[in-house]
């Protein structure tokens, strides 16, 4: 088990690109689309560069997290979490938590009212995520209600509602076959 104090979280650098793409392939195996999403987000204006983070343990990149800007029909800009990946060998060792807590600390001082994500229903509530539908936050496509989650930030108000519009780098993920 890794001591959480040995996890170093920092912004991704260009020298990390190969490692983070390989991490996405390993963490989301057998789906190679996440590595493609990582590449597309990096090239996009929607990426929140301060929240393109890696987790290192002993100079090895073992986790990666990205946030991008999404819009909602009420006109607000939201922070969209995707992807969050950890190398399989390092899962369940506080890597994802270290990345999440670092990002949420930054976001609490930002103008973003809300974080949204599609994620494992048993994982994200530990950070304060709740079902998004009861808040009036709707996905742009059909999702099981339990995976569509939101985290209210200090800038949140009940005026933030409607359908979320993902940024363009996500379009290829939601094309009907």
Could you describe the 3D structure shown?
The chain has 177 residues and is of the alpha+beta class. It has a single domain, classed as Gcn5-related N-acetyltransferase (GNAT) (Aminopeptidase). It is 19% helix and 28% strand. The chain has helices spanning 17-27, 33-42, 95-107, and strands spanning 8-11, 53-57, 60-72, 77-86, 114-118, 130-131, 137-138, 148-152, 162-165. Strands 1, 2, 3, 4, 5, 6, 7, 8 and 9 form a nine-stranded mixed sheet that branches. Strand 4, helix 3 and strand 5 (114-118) form a beta-alpha-beta unit. The longest helix is centred in the middle third of the chain and has 13 residues, at 95-107. The chain starts with 7 loop residues before the first strand and ends in a 12-residue tail after the last strand. The model has no long low-confidence stretch (mean pLDDT 95).
